[in-house]
Specification:
Layout (H helix, E strand, L loop, with lengths): L7 H7 L26 H5 L14 H14 L3 E5 L2 H11 L6 E5 L4 H11 L5 E5 L15 E7 L11 H11 L2 E5 L17 E5 L13 E5 L1 H14 L5 H12 L1 H20 L4 E5 L9 H7 L6 E6 L4 H8 L5 E2 L9 E6 L15 E6 L5 H17 L1
Parallel strand pairs: 2-3, 2-4, 4-5, 5-6, 10-11
Antiparallel strand pairs: 1-7, 6-7, 8-9, 9-12, 11-12
Helix pairs in contact: 3-8, 4-5, 4-7, 11-12
């Protein structure tokens, strides 16, 4: 049976490993290497076809992860980088040149915007931030010098779903490359490459790892664009620890189970929050009540555990009564691990093309793998403390 004949969950248990090449070991071993030796001068002189040349360019462990990412994202080629931000930077720099113009979703991850504003601007690249709900109307913003359209769906902190199909159609008509931050879906619930997107990146730190213990970025792309991305990758000297690559491969094996649980538990918590008097708004596109639900349902096969909501209380001191006493929800950066997280956010500082007026405190929640009943009790106790204050 070929991989094309296997169900997707089965493919994720098989990809990136070949026990016969590693003395029968089920998992691809950790290859720690810098120098790679060649037996003859002729072998050393072979520039093409030698996948192993130097540790920074990859080892069997990191190559196995790249192969697995291709399976996950339904892509032709892949690269792995030391973090999600490094993957973003790699992609943006690959198309940066003086006079170039980028279109970037206004709901993009903060460090994406900062790279555009602080690094690319200094290189002569102009960035226009666009309303993530534009869809085909993005054609009105394309210029002759537009080189790249950057998407993130759902959007960071506010969870707008973009019409990827419409944007890709416009981009192809104008010869513009498309890229998307696909971290929210983990590549499990959405495969942008099957919708015609040229590049799909993830912070593998999140759901690919699943255990909050590594830093990792992934870039999936078409064969046509790979060499351009690879050249930037090599010039920056990016490389991933083989130990981290090994952990990412191990995390990938349990992704189907984890993502299905994140989906179910996240929806249960979102529905509960929507019924609470303290909550003004819930931003979860998998809920039928969400304004982006129809578009989400058309593109995604499920939802991760990350979403947002707004509560009426805004006083920082009173908010501390809610956050400081939580038992199961931690406060910290990142998400996608087995543990639940809850942090206040302020999307307004990242908006220039759209307004964010929540009329309360915006909160980002990641629902982990704990039992939803315990998480609900934890949140209810926190809201009670907020009232007592």
């Amino acid at each position: 049976m070929t991989s094309d004949d296997m169900e997707f969950d089965t493919q994720l248990t098989q990809c990136g490993r070949n026990p016969a090449q590693h003395f029968g070991a089920v998992n691809t071993p950790v290859y720690r290497a810098s120098t790679i030796l060649f037996p003859t001068l002729a072998a050393l002189d072979v520039k093409e076809g030698a996948r192993l040349r130097y540790g920074r360019r990859g080892t069997p462990t990191t190559h196995a992860l790249e192969d697995a990412v291709c399976t996950l994202e339904h892509s032709e080629r892949a690269l792995v980088t030391p973090s999600g931000v490094s993957a973003i930077s790699n992609i943006l720099m690959s198309f940066a040149e003086p006079g170039a113009h980028f279109l970037v979703s206004d709901s993009s991850y903060g460090p994406t915007r900062k790279f555009c504003d602080f690094v690319l601007r200094g290189l002569g690249v102009e960035t226009t931030y666009y309303d993530p709900t534009l869809g085909e109307r993005i054609s009105e913003l394309i210029r002759p010098e537009t080189k790249l359209i950057w998407m993130e769906s759902p959007g960071s902190q506010t969870f707008e779903v973009q019409d990827v199909d419409a944007i890709v159609a416009v981009a192809r008509a104008h010869g513009v490359v498309t890229a998307i931050d696909n971290t929210w879906s983990a590549g499990y619930f959405f495969q942008p490459m099957t919708h015609g997107v040229d590049i799909s990146m993830q912070a593998g730190t999140k759901y690919i790892s699943g255990h909050s213990d590594i830093m990792l970025g992934t870039i999936a792309c078409t064969e046509e664009i790979y060499d351009r991305l690879r050249e930037t990758y090599l010039r920056f000297g990016f490389c991933v620890s083989p130990d981290d690559a090994y952990l990412a491969l191990r995390g990938l094996r349990t992704m189907p189970l984890r993502m299905r649980q994140h989906h179910a538990s996240g929806l249960a918590i979102a529905d509960w929050l929507a019924q609470q008097g303290e909550v003004i708004r819930v931003m979860h596109p998998a809920r039928p009540q969400d304004p982006h639900h129809a578009l989400w349902k058309n593109q995604f096969s499920g939802a991760s555990g990350l979403f947002g909501f707004v509560i009426s209380e805004t006083d920082r001191g009173r908010l501390a009564r809610l956050f400081d006493g939580l038992q199961f929800f931690g406060m910290g950066s990142s998400w996608g691990g087995f543990e639940s997280l809850l942090v206040p956010t302020n999307p307004t500082v990242y908006r220039t093309a759209t307004d964010w007026t929540p009329m309360g405190q915006t909160i980002r929640i990641h629902v982990g793998l704990e039992d939803p009943k315990d998480l609900i009790r934890d949140l209810r106790t926190g809201f009670d403390r907020l009232h007592d204050a």
